[in-house]
Amino acid sequence: MTTTTEKVTPKAPPKPVLQLGDRIFAGSAKGAGILILVVLAGVAAFLILQAMPAIVASPADLPGGKTLVAYIGPLVFGTILAALIALVLATPLAVAIALFITHYAPRRLAQGLGYLIDLLAAVPSIVYGLWGVAVLAPATIGVSTWLNTYLGWIPFFAGPVSVTGRTMLVVGVTLAVMILPIITAVAREVFLQTPKLHEEAALALGATRWEMIRMAVLPFGRSGIISGSMLGLGRALGETMAVAIILSASGAVTFNLISSDNPSTIAGNIALQFPDSTGLAVNTLIASGLVLFVITLLVNALARYIINRRREFSGAN
């Protein structure tokens, strides 16, 4: 008696039947994603079309008789400089605050401090600008004098010291306070998601609390810190009113942070010049806005690239 063995092909599992609510939610989510792309493409198209007359215009017709690169270049320099100062000042402080709230402070104090930090994000930027002009600028004159006296050999503090205090250093500190709650909120939520088994294992092996944070919490939250920092950097790059109020801009390209010769920023320059501009001057300002748009996209793309490189480390294993 012979037997034949037939190869049985496994059947594919049936597709789940989506309920009406699931289909509505999926369609709404897809529509929202498409809408974001359409709006982004529309903004880019508007900026390109409106900036084209300035791009093809003769330098003699542009504001100041300069080429478009010569006009926008100092603004790009000032925008990046102010944002980097804010990022360098805010990121370590935000990470330290997030670690204190999540791993050191008592629960009641941590909850109240978290609410207080979050409230900083609700303060209008014009209020920060007024605070920077009325409080921070006069208070930094003595600090700037000391920096110029003892650290004047560094280009950042070469001086002469501004008598009004309305300097790039004050702008950077103000922007750092503005982006502090953004970075802190993201870092705090990421630190709270650190697997408890990792923390308990480090403590069980004899690690101190700081060693546990350094070995378990910070590696797990590194991508979150980068994400929060890039969000804060995007806010600092596009900040308008605070910069326009505080900064006494002269259009110079300099790393000197405590003198009255300060480069302006793209957003601040647009806010100050747009009301009185007509014709080709408006197109020139829109062209500078297009450059800011591209810079912001590049910053976000770089952040996404860095985060994707660490996607394989989830901390859950």
From TrEMBL:
ABC transmembrane type-1 domain location, by residue?
Answer: 76-303
Check the record and name the InterPro entries matching this protein.
Answer: MetI-like, MetI-like_sf, Phosphate_PstC, Phosphate_Transport_Permease
In the bilayer, the protein is annotated as: Multi-pass membrane protein
Which compartments is it annotated to reside in? Cell membrane
Residues annotated as transmembrane:
32-56, 68-101, 113-131, 137-157, 169-192, 212-233, 240-260, 280-303
Query: What UniProt keywords are attached to this protein's entry?
Result: Cell membrane, Membrane, Phosphate transport, Transmembrane, Transmembrane helix, Transport
Q: Which family does it belong to?
A: Belongs to the binding-protein-dependent transport system permease family. CysTW subfamily.
Q: What does this protein do?
A: Part of the binding-protein-dependent transport system for phosphate; probably responsible for the translocation of the substrate across the membrane.
Question: Which NCBIfam families does this one have?
Answer: phosphate_pstC (TIGR02138)
Provide the protein name.
Answer: Phosphate transport system permease protein
Q: What is the lineage of its organism?
A: Bacteria, Bacillati, Actinomycetota, Actinomycetes, Pseudonocardiales
